[in-house]
Amino acid sequence: MLRPKIPTMPTPTGHVTPPAVIEPTAVVPSVQTPPPAPASAAQSGPVVQLTPGTVIALVGGGTAVVLIVGAVLVSLLLAVAITGASLAICALVIRSLVNTDAKQR
Predict the structure, then answer these.
(1) pLDDT value, residue 3
(2) Distance between CA 46 and CA 95 in Å, rounded?
(3) CB within 8 A of 69, min separation 6: which ones?
(4) From 8's CA, which of 19, 38, 68, 76 has a CA 20 to 30 Å away?
(5) 41-60 pLDDT, tens digit each
(6) For the whole model, what pTM was predicted?
(7) CA 39, CA 45: separation in Å to the nearest integer?
């Protein structure tokens, strides 16, 4: 019942081509070329040079990003706090209305 059923490979139908015969080829030694010289540091890529102006720009940009992300997170936290306080006030008002309605009956 729980034994897997292994599919059987069906026999090929139609035109069957015979396998291709691969003939060995002779290996002819060639002239050895010297390995390429290692690339110097100047050819590895452009070098970034930090001038005082770029350092100030990077620090200013990083500060701006941190301030913007911080402002967004604080505003989200403030929105959650205001929503929670509003729901708490609504719950108190509804509870008060239900209690006064029950006392009048």
Answers:
(1) 81
(2) 70
(3) none
(4) 19
(5) 455 667 778 888 999 999 99
(6) 0.45
(7) 11
